[in-house]
Design goal:
Strand order of the largest sheet: 3-5-6-4
Helix content: 25-40%
Bound molecules: zinc ion
Radius of gyration: 22 Å
Number of helices: 5
Order of helices and strands: EEHHEHEEEHH
Structural class: alpha+beta
Strand content: 5-15%
Distance between the termini: 16 Å
């Protein structure tokens, strides 16, 4: 298959890879980075490569850096999950979710950058002067768009792979030979790898 992307190489040694994912189940997926569009290897749910993860994404800048949200019981957890996904941490400096409890009722969440350039979130019951709350639904919509784009490129990638396998199967010269057997096995393995 011809490669049309800027850099579709993603060998095991690429600095874009999430090497710490490799040992995990689902940790060896080829993913396309939503920031730089390059391929990288990592957990199937990752959306950015390791290089871009170090940079601030536009989404994170817009929705998770010095933002304030009013949240309720239905959206408080999702908000934190998305923040974690984009590299923010709980104010404890861990990848942690602040659990809902009855005393919260309607709660504010604030994100802010700390001295070591980490963006953290914490619950906070009030807005600061001349501050406006960020719209939760706007954030969620943009988040969904990012997920959709990632899913589409995943479908494109798998479709290309299936096509390549089909071509490979059609090109097998002698259906009776051992070569055919091993070629088929190889193609099936490639398909199953996803
Ligand atoms: Zn990237």
């Amino acid at each position: 298959m011809p490669n049309t992307e800027p850099n579709s190489q993603c060998g095991k040694e690429s600095e874009r890879n999430w090497t710490e994912d490799f040992e995990h189940e689902n940790g060896n997926y080829q993913c396309r980075c939503i920031e730089c569009k390059n391929m990288f290897i990592g957990h199937k749910r990752r959306v950015v490569c390791k290089v871009c993860d170090g940079k601030e994404s536009d989404f994170k800048k817009k929705y998770f850096t010095n933002n304030f949200y009013w949240v309720n019981e239905t959206n408080y957890k999702k908000l934190q999950e998305i923040a974690l996904e984009f590299g923010c941490l709980c104010h404890t400096k861990k990848k942690q979710i602040i659990e809902w409890h009855e005393g919260f009722k309607c709660l504010g969440f604030r994100t802010y950058e700390t001295n070591d350039n980490v963006t953290v979130f914490q619950k906070e019951p009030f807005l600061m002067e001349r501050e406006t709350a960020t719209n939760y639904n706007d954030m969620l919509k943009e988040y969904a768009d990012i997920q959709l784009t990632a899913a589409k490129s995943e479908v494109e990638r798998l479709t290309a792979k299936i096509e390549a396998c089909k071509v490979g199967l059609e090109n097998l010269a002698d259906p009776e030979s051992d070569v055919t057997y091993y070629k088929c096995k190889e193609l099936l393995t490639t398909l199953n790898e996803k």
